[in-house]
Each structure stands twice: as structure tokens, then as C-alpha cells.
């Protein structure tokens, strides 16, 4: 079965981002770069359209969409490849937007987020700014934060440390770099890192 | 074989008690202030009950034990940090007299490994130290059988106290202080548990393993001096104050936390790590486990009692039999 190719020329003009702070008519500061993203979608009506919306919402310009309905991934979903262009600083926002929509990003620019790494952080996570900690990891760890579970201190010891479990998706072979970044943020914020034991 | 046993704590007294069963004679038994010495074999039971009654092991001076006519010296005095004294001097004295040495004391092998090897090289006596790592588990002899040059890394749970605390916390959802107090009541943790819960004990064992791995990768004794790892170079993190919710979060993910020591020829690292809840390394209670990463045969794991008088004495006496 032939892939159903949508040429970019027919695509609607990109809508401006809804967030007022992000409104920039030229689409950003840096020169636009072309990116390829591989997605997986459930075979349900409306999923493709819903998956493309975050690209436009975050200032990306769709170049092509290859939607192979006849194919199935090992997880029983439909593989979709998207080419888009956007300024460099917008790309992470597009990936984030896709994930928030519940879309599985298999690879971004052919760099597979292949390994999942679990770490538990212990310490005064809230006081030291958990969102800032996560932001640092997104920026420096070469990883996406796929899941965060925070456990507050026990009620009878409210001054005690809290704990958070993070699921980090790293590029293949990138686990050590990610752990380095986790260690460095943790050291700065005086958090204890319970790292996974490699190769188990 | 005639044995002189220095140190009459849990390990030293178990060695003295079990030696007869292994066909050996204890000709001297000493603690830090008293000793029983008899060239025909001491009455171990009498010496130990005299010590228990507060009278000391016997009438002799500890120096007489070191000077006695023995074939092998069992060094089971407490492990000390830094210069490993007085254990190291005891070992040196025995080797200079061309006697064998079996260590239960970790200090000399962890902190002065190259010097220990140099002394042994100049002596007709040999040095063995199976009991210093993993109690009854035959870690070092397995390493020797495999050939340490064909073992890339060794890791595992090497401290029973920390493992008891972590496994009780995970199983019962109890906090650290509560479980530690319970461990002290049960005699699993010492009154001052710092050495165990801060990871120092596991790190010393990791250093000994690392030294065995690096020894197999250097050509001469000068190379060994440079290749050995010291406790200061080890990356050590303990389990003090780890909250129960960290273990709960791990459990929700099918994992648990264990204090893991990892040794390669160049590095030693000890810290709380996430391991699969039903995985090889997630032993519970005071049990220890060691996993060897071999070059050609994948992973090999051995588990057993990592501490305790009789368990450690078993490793000491196996070493005596290997001399």
C-alpha cells in the first residue's frame, strides 16, 4: 500500500501561537531548521489531526506528513513521520506539545529516545523548586522527563525529606550523560540521588 | 597447622572454637590486653569463659601470642582506618618470620595492599584474606579461580546491617530511625552503626575487590602501588536518613533500594541504588550477595551470610586449609 503523502504546499498557513508571550510573527529568533519526527498513533478517527495541532500551536511549519495506515508498529499502532521546520528554540516545545497530547514520539531527528531511566530524588524537593529541577534536566540532560511522581514527607514528620521518582527517556547510549546532569543538579540542590544500577 | 589467633571478638573466638574441627591447633589466642599461649594447644573453652567472666584470656601478654611458635597467624583484630594499625604490624611481624597470615581484619588489605603484597613476596609465608569480603561467601577464591584478569567488575550487597535496614523499611513501610533501633535491639546493628550505614564498611570491601582486579592487570609491585585504590578515592554514599517514601516510590515501579558496592580495577563506588524488586541483587535481611561480571561467562552470583562469628570464621578456616 502506498503511503498517503500530504505535500506541504497545500498546508494551511501556520496559526500564531495562542500564548500571547510567544507571539512572534516571524516564527522565532533563529533560522528555521528542518526536523523529522516519528510518531505512533492509535488507529482511531481524528488522531492524526489532533497530533498535528501541537506542531502549529508551537510555531512549527509542517513540510510533509507520511501516514502509513497499512503498517503497524510492534505496539499495534500506526507509524507517522512528520517533516517540519521551526526555529531551534521552538523544537523542544513542539515535542513537549506532542507528548502533552498523548502522542508517542518514537524518534526526533533520528535520535531515538530509546532508553528509559528511573531515578529517585530525595531531599527538600519542593523548597528547592521541583519545576526548576525538571527544567534543568530537560535542558541539560539530553532527556525528556516522561513521568514524575512526588511523595511528600510523612504527616508526622513534615520537616522530613520528600522523594520523587522520575522516568527519563534518553537517547540510545545517552544514559550516562543524563545521569551526570541529574547528579550535578542534585548536588547543587543538596538532593540525594538513588540511581538505577546499570546493566541489571 | 598451629594457629595464633589475634583478636578475640566474634570472629577470633569462633575461629578458636572451630579450629579443632578443621584439624588445627590453636597455640595462642590474644585480645588487646591479655593472651593464652601454649605450644601444645590452648584450652580454648577455658580461655573464652575466663574472658567472658572479666578475667582476661590468660596470663600471657598479647606480645607473646605474636611471638609464639605458630604456622599461621589469624589476624582478627578490629579494622582500623588510615594506617591499619596495629593489624598491619602483626601481619608484618608474622611474614618477616616466614609464617603464613590469614586476615579477617580488612584494614591491611584495603588500605596497605601493595605493602602487604611486597611483604608477602619477600616472605616464605603467604597471605590470604577471603574473610575480609562477604563473610562466608567465597568471593576472593572464586575470583582467583576465574582469574581476576577475566573479571571486569564485581558488585553486590556487602553490608548486612544496611541491607537489613533497607529491606525492613521496604517491607514494613517503617522509617529509618525505627528500623535502625530495631536492628540494634536484635544485635544486627552495632551501638555505633556509622561504619555500616554510611557505607564505609562496604567501601573497604569494594577497595579490596578493586585491588584484586588491578593486581591482575599490572606487571610488577611498582605498578601495583600506583594501581591500587584507596578508601579516599572511593565514591561513597550511605543510607542514613533515606525516607520510607523513597522506597515506596521504587516499589510502585517494581524496584527496591539496596546499598550496592561496585568495584572495577580503577573505581570503587558505594551508594543506595535502584534494583529490580525480584532481581538477583535484592537479597533481604542481613544476607549478602556478590555478582561477578566475567569476560566470557556473563554474570556469576554467590550469596550467603556476610557477617557473624561462625560465618566469617568459616572463611578464615577455609583460607587456612588453602595454605
Q: How would you portray this structure in words?
A:
The complex is a heterodimer of chains A (200) and B (323). Chain A is α+β, with helices and mostly antiparallel strands. Chain A has four helices and ten strands, in the order E-E-H-E-E-H-E-E-E-H-E-E-H-E. In chain A, the strands form two sheets. A six-stranded antiparallel beta sheet of chain A has the order 1-3-4-2-5-6. A four-stranded antiparallel beta sheet of chain A has the order 8-9-7-10, with helices on one face. In chain A, a hairpin with a 2-residue loop joins strand 5 and strand 6. The N terminus of chain A is likely disordered. Chain B is an alpha/beta fold. Chain B contains 14 helices and twelve strands. A six-stranded mixed beta sheet of chain B has the order 3-2-1-4-5-6, with helices on both faces. In chain B, a hairpin with a 4-residue loop joins strand 2 and strand 3. In chain B, helix 6 runs antiparallel to helix 12. Chain B is globular and about 60 Å long.
